[in-house]
Amino acid sequence: MVRVRFAPSPTGYLHVGGARTALFNWLYARKLGGQFLLRIEDTDKARSTDESTRAIYHGLTWLGLTWEEDVVHQGANVARHQRDAHALLESGAAYRCFCTSAELDARRADAESRKESFRYDRRCDLLDAAEVEQRAAAGAPHTIRFRVPDGHTAWTDMVHGEISFPNKDIDDLVILRSDGTPIYNLAVVSDDIDMRITHVLRGEDHISNTPKQILLYRALGAALPVFAHFPNVLGTDGKKLSKRHGATAVGDYEGLGIMPEAMCNFLALLGWSPGGDREVMTQAEMISLFSEEGLLAKASVFDMKKLEWMNAQHLMHMPMEVLTPRVVDAIVATGVATAVELSANEAWVCTLIELLRVRARTIDDLAKQSAPYFGATVTFDADAVAKQWKDASLTRKLLGGARAALEALPTWDAAAMELALRGLAEAEGLGAGKVMQPLRVVLLGVAASPGMFDVLLLLGRDRSLARIDAALTHPHLAA
User: Fold this and answer.
1) What CATH code would you report for 243-317?
2) Active site members
């Protein structure tokens, strides 16, 4: 069975690149009927926080990326990491190093002064075995170093194909510090073996770690997993995505009104192609289409405008029973209506959402657009007033005529409204827009909105007429 894992460090929030990695792991497991596991790599106690762990849980849950089995906390496995390190020591694959940090720093500085790259010279590996045992028994501080063999280390990467590293370029890495805590590469390999991970799918930043980890797998007598390294996510400037590009934490996008379905869809396309020109997909469709053949080796660009477009597509096609509760929460958050008020007018709210979602890009955008439909009065946009009420005398006349025509309607329906308002425009020798545009500003305070007759139907006769009356007293139109 395919078993994959997402292994974030709880030293910050779940960022976009990490979320993309988690998603690819999740999709791969779901496509092949495998298992998606979560490991929190919290061995760095100084930087790991409970707040960051909670943020990771929340981000994954918000995206809908559920995991199997209990969460593994790397920090709880230090005893096993130590056992594995000592097993390597006993097998001869590793050796004790008594060099101090100060000594290593001095040698590193000396190499740099000679413009040479520093490489550990294995001087402690040349010590007599009896001396090593004597110093260790006496409690002399030491690390455990893995002895890198000669040759090359290669693997077939699921994304990049054949990758090979000459072992001479890999330093004898420390696997256990002098205080007994494990180094990252050993802890990761030890945990992946224990968790029976079959595929290690992660960002390409880890490519340089992979040959070291492959050597550790082999030295521990474990089977190698399949490796895949996804390309970096870049900003629109072509540089690796970071805080300078704006929001990078998944939670920030939730706060901006981006929907998880759209976020997953967008993230999936950062390094994967379903084939053809297909872009907008449901979760089920992504699972069905996901394949390693579609994984891309080229870096992808995180474009906020594209994400908002994607969000708009999902907003447009989402079932109303799923969308409405989300929009209701956002409307309540704006303060224009209470949950009780919205619940009492459920059919009207659904009609409003259906009407507005055509023009909205985010949930927050939709909630803001809904504000003029609540309350007795509206706030007039200064630019819209200046443009659409330019001729105050004519505007007063047209609005007065529109009010009379609308008030006289026997039924409040779109066909009757259209007939009345177009008749008014014709009587004045004007195009219909000359009546509709000033009236639009009167009703909603802005120059752009859904169809005029849909707006009138939503506001109802009494509020529509009341808003015309209020507009006629506006300083711009007052005689």
Assistant:
1) 1.10.1160.10
2) 243
